[in-house]
Amino acid sequence: MDGGGVAPTTTASWLARHREMYKRATRHPFTVSIRDGTVDLAAFKRWLGQDYMFVQEFVAFLASVLLKCCKQSESSDMEIILGGLASLSDELSWFKKEAAKWSVDLAGVSPLSSNMEYRRFLQSFGEPEISYTVAITTFWIIETVYQDSFAFCIEEGNKTPPELLGTCQRWGSPEFKQYCQALQQITDRCLANAPSDAVKSAEEAFLRVLDLEVGFWDMSSPERQQNPQKPSTVQLLE
Ligand SMILES: Cc1ncc(CN)c(N)n1
């Protein structure tokens, strides 16, 4: 904190400390290619099919976050998380409609290795030992990466193809940004009250999500997947 200033929240300090990693996840060549209009539609379709599978697992993940919340936190948190869970029903319908539009056969999609890795990570939240603080941090950063990535695709100066604008608006809208900010406030409140080992685990989960998101975007392009431009292990700087 500089003289007389307000101390940054924990999430703000992580976003500053790990900005390079955050940028790799939110300004990935795949989403940047959507924004600059050069996106390979085969890559977009691959992402669409894989993300549908991801969201199916995300439902169970969010149910586990909700369960942890109900056991130990405030009812206002519960309502916000429940809203997110309810909206996944719409999201799954959206994927089915979009897949039909792009002739992607969702029944024929099987998860690629980065997706399987991400899904295994989400499944681990079913373990009761993982705290609500770590779970809500994870939920916040997963949503924030999509919000920031797709908001960039509809910001001024974009050349996003018109047929992809609906996708970008789904996560890039001001309403979704507000939702992510509400999650960030909950996360900061939990972190402020958590013991230091839980804060450390939450920061590790934050970094793990950024790493998994980069891997997920890489999956959209076979060349990048074979030659990923990311550090395989993320270490905390103490
Ligand atoms: C991989 C991934 N990350 C985040 C989101 C946003 N819920 C998503 N649909 N897919």
From TrEMBL:
Gene Ontology terms for molecular function: thiaminase activity
Looking at the record, the residues that make up the Thiaminase-2/PQQC domain are 16-220
Q: Which InterPro entries match?
A: Haem_Oase-like_multi-hlx, TenA_E, Thiaminase-2/PQQC, Thiamine_Salvage_TenA
| Reactions accelerated catalytically | 4-amino-5-aminomethyl-2-methylpyrimidine + H2O = 4-amino-5-hydroxymethyl-2-methylpyrimidine + NH4(+)
Q: Which GO terms describe its biological process?
A: thiamine biosynthetic process
- Its top-level enzyme class, in one word, is hydrolase
EC number annotated for this UniProt entry:
3.5.99.2
Q: Which residues bind substrate?
A: D51, E91, E143
Identify the pathway: Cofactor biosynthesis; thiamine diphosphate biosynthesis
Keywords (A to Z) from UniProt: Disulfide bond, Hydrolase, Thiamine biosynthesis
Q: Specify the protein name.
A: aminopyrimidine aminohydrolase
Q: Which organism is it from?
A: Brachypodium distachyon
